[in-house]
Design brief:
The chain is α/β, with parallel strands linked by helices. 38% of the residues lie in helices and 18% in strands. The strands form three sheets. It has a nine-stranded mixed sheet, sandwiched between helices. It has a three-stranded antiparallel sheet with strand order 12-14-13. Strands 1-7 form a two-stranded antiparallel sheet.
């Protein structure tokens, strides 16, 4: 755990205009929230994206494409998640890259960030005004497993719908969030996968039992939610290829081309790039769709 510096954390009571109206409509809504950063919690479209901490390239690619497409079709969009490893943090990162406000729901006070590896991202969200850290817990609250279950209910409560990108069938916060969201009348969407893939079993189960709608694209969500997409003028050509890497990025790309799925430590040792500079460059490359981060601190070219 890493201490998060005090940066004008503020309470949000139920009678405040900033309090999320969607959450207020849920039975036993928390009487007080604590916030750092800026995000319209009553934005027109709020989509929660959750999933396993052991996300595969399949799920991460889906998350990137989904947020890109939602952003290109919807005004007043906010992406919500739990700042956990895997699917959650990828959703926050992609939202920031696309200029979409994002809110991270925490299971502890704002005086710390868990996992500590996401402190830099959380600080960026606050300092660059790209998002908000939100919690029901005051500073000094110890981290407890039960807090995460309560946090999942808040994720479901503040959004219009929940998208499960990947989940095992036997356990996990994503399934808990999905089932609670369905119980309070929110629409749930799940990305299907092969029946032999462990981290697709939870999504396949949600679809099979009728808890979730099958989702392949943003269009599926927009149609099911009855949202009116933004009109995009014809003739606007999308950039087909990311920028060509240079400097350390070029060195890293060349190494990963020969040694895919290498860890950051391996890349640093073999290329001679200091680990601090390497991690910074890898993050920038990820934002530019040049690499994708995988579980175990591994990286692969996009």
């Amino acid at each position: 755990m890493t201490r998060q510096p005090d940066n004008h954390a503020r309470p949000i009571l139920t009678d405040a205009t900033e309090y999320p109206k969607r959450l207020l409509a849920v039975k036993d809504a928390p009487e007080k929230l604590y916030a750092l950063g800026e995000c319209d919690l009553n934005s027109r479209h709020i989509v929660a994206i959750v999933g396993t901490r052991s996300a595969t390239a399949y799920a991460l690619g889906f998350i990137n494409a989904l947020i890109d497409d939602l952003n290109s079709h919807l005004d007043s969009l906010v992406i919500a998640s739990g700042l956990a490893l895997g699917c959650d943090v990828m959703a926050h990162r992609r939202a920031i890259e696309d200029g979409v406000p994002t809110v991270a729901l925490l299971a502890h006070g704002l005086d710390r960030i868990y996992p500590a590896a996401h402190r830099q991202l959380a600080t960026r969200m606050v300092n660059e005004r790209t998002g908000m850290l939100l919690t029901t817990y005051p500073e000094g609250t110890p981290i407890h497993r039960g807090n995460f279950l309560a946090r999942n209910k808040v994720i479901a409560g503040i959004c219009d719908c929940v998208v499960v990108a990947e989940s095992a069938a036997d356990r996990g916060g994503a399934l808990h969030t999905a089932r609670y969201a369905a119980a309070i009348g929110k629409k749930v969407f799940a990305l299907p996968g092969r029946i032999t893939d462990r981290y697709s079993r939870g999504c396949n189960m949600l679809v099979r039992e009728g808890t979730a709608h099958l989702v392949e694209s943003a269009e599926d969500i927009i149609r099911a939610m009855g949202w009116t997409p933004r009109h995009n003028p014809e003739g606007v050509q999308q950039e087909l290829f990311p920028s060509v890497p240079t400097g350390d990025a070029a060195t890293i790309a060349s190494f990963l081309e020969k040694t895919p799925d290498a860890t950051a430590d391996t890349i640093s040792a073999d290329t001679g790039i200091p680990i601090g500079s390497l991690l910074s460059t890898l993050m920038e490359m990820e934002f530019n769709d040049l690499v994708i981060s995988l579980p175990g601190n591994r990286y692969r070219l996009q």
